[in-house]
Each structure stands twice: as structure tokens, then as C-alpha cells.
Amino acid sequence: MKRLTVTLTAVLFLLTSLVSSPVSAQSPEATASAPRTQYPLTIENCGSPLTFAAAPTGVITLANNTTEIMLALGLEDHMAGIVGKINKLDLDLQARATSVTIVAETAFPYPSREVILEANPDFLLSGYGGDFTENAYGSREYYADQNVATFYMTDSCGSGDRITLEDTYTDILTLGQIFDVQDRAQALVASMQATAGDYVSDDPVSVFVFSGDTVDSTATIGGAQLLSDLVYRAGGENIFGDLDEAWMPESSMEEILAHDPDFIVITQYAAIDPDDIIAYWKQDPIMSQLSAVQNDRIVVISTTWTVPSIHNGDAIRKMHDAFYGN
Question: What is the DSSP letter of 92?
Fold first, then answer.
């Protein structure tokens, strides 16, 4: 997919508005200075062409991260439903979500295709890889036959490419084009860029990323995962970042010990309390030897912040502040 760039207009909008967060930057009254979308519009998503005769008006967002993107763009009037709970969304966005139907409060287990189609969607916006498979919501082909477009964020395409924060920006700008709110998308990206800052270090701290859903898991990420790039932008270096993999279901505890990382980043899943993970490590014969465990150099980041999200910049800043004692 061709990368889009943030215009100087968006940066000036950010500076003159004195925006302090990506959420507060967006409103339906954003200044009209970007070109209007010309329909029919054809874009490419994960190698598949999608053509829009007009902006979709029946969007279902399938996870909190994409729900927040839509709401931050002021597109709640285009939404037919949400998969998730309103009280799990960013506090500044919850009021906007109250007008949108809750299709299902959780994606685990996945709601049936019948439940999804009952909301009369014309566009499904995925939050995670694997959403459009037979074991999840159903295939893209199935929904195409129902005249429902499906959109993956770039990190879910499974292309094997290394995903970076630039891909999140590009996806947001593409959504701005699809919904003819390009100024809002540009302003959101500019605000995220300001939050993300410039913390790349010539002498980065070493980081082990824990990405498991049980206390005894050794799941982690390789260099192809978005979070690996966020760690890098925070002034860190993923100890498995040289591997061209995304999520890795297991890693070697002995190899983790050999690296003895300066910090550990825990991706926080709802199913497990980070305190339980840390308590387990404290008594584990191998993990307890890590200096990061012994000295409590552990950073907990919400999973929603580690996938394409309006909070990617917040994740960078939180990690940087922990790494460098700010």
C-alpha cells in the first residue's frame, strides 16, 4: 500500500490548537483544508482492493483499539456497532460511544456471523490478526458476498514485513480518506507524533517483552511486531528484535537469562494480573535471577496500546520514562 504523508497543514493545526492528547485533537468540526475524497474510491488493504461508492455508514469495530480510532476521528455517526465494553475505552471517548450499539461485550468467544449481520454493517474494522478467518468472525470472502467490506490494520496482514509506527499512521490516514475526514486524520497523526517524541538512543537499554497469557509462559515478540518498534522508539532494544517474527509463542528461559535484559515490558491482557506474573517470576529459579526482576525494572503496558492505536505514542512515552527514570 502506498504510504501517505502528514502535511504541514496538519502540523500547524496541531501547534495552533495546543493539543495535549490524540483524543482531544479530534472533533467533527475540524478545519476543511485537505482535499475532499473523490468517490468511487479504491484502496488496497492487505493486497485486496476495496472500492467505496461513498463513505461507509454502518461500521462495526471489532476491538477497542479500532473503536477508539473511529471515535477519535469523530465518526461515531458512521458506526453500527462495537465489539467491546464502553467502560474499557479511553475516558475521553466514552461519551461519544454511548450512541453506538454494543454488538457484543467481548470477542472471546467470537460473536457469531448472525449477530454481526443483525447490526446491518457495511464495513467491519478489525483490531487483531485472524479476525477474518473461519474460526473467528468469518472470511473476507464471506462478508464480501454480503456486501460488507472488511479492513485489516496493516500489522494484521501477515505479510512478514516488519511493522512500525508509520504503518499505524498510514492506516489512520487511509481511514481518513475512506470517510472523507482527511483533516481529522492528519491532525490525529500529528498529535500522536508529538506524543511519541524522539527518544531513539545510540545506547539503548535491553528489553525482554513478555507477551504471554499465563504466568509461566515465555511468549514474546520478534522484530516484526509493532511493539518491537515502539520499544526502539522509546530508547530500548528488544532482545529478540533480530528475529523476523511477530508474536513468538515461546522463547528460551536460558536465552533470556543469558541476555539479562535491563528491563522487562509486560503486555497486559485482561485475563491475567501483571502482579501475579511478577510474583511468579520472583520465585521461579530462572526468572528470579534476572536483574530486571530483582530490581523491579518492569513496565506494564496495556495490550491496546501495543497494537495499532491512538495510544501508541503514549506507550512510547511510558516506556521511555521508565527506562530513563523520567
Answer: G
239-256 pLDDT, tens digit per residue, is 999 999 999 999 999 999
pLDDT band of residue 160 (cuts 50, 70, 90) is confident
- Burial profile 8-35: b = 16 or more Cβ within 10 angstroms, e = fewer: ebbbebbeebebebbbebbeeebeeebe
Query: Do 116 and 153 belong to one domain?
Result: yes
Split into its structural domains, the chain has a count of 2
Alpha carbons within 13 A on the beta-carbon side of 175: 35
The answer to the question of residue 219 being in a domain is: yes
Q: What is the pLDDT of residues 177-186, one digit of tens each?
A: 999 999 999 9
Supply the CATH number for residue 217's domain. Answer: 3.40.50.1980
**Residue 179's domain spans which residues?**
31-196
Q: What is the pTM of this model?
A: 0.89
Confidence of residue 17 (pLDDT cuts 50, 70, 90): very low
Q: Which of 145, 162, 196 is the last residue of a domain?
A: 196
Q: Is 181 exposed, middle or buried (0-12, 13-18, 19+ CB in 10 A)?
A: buried
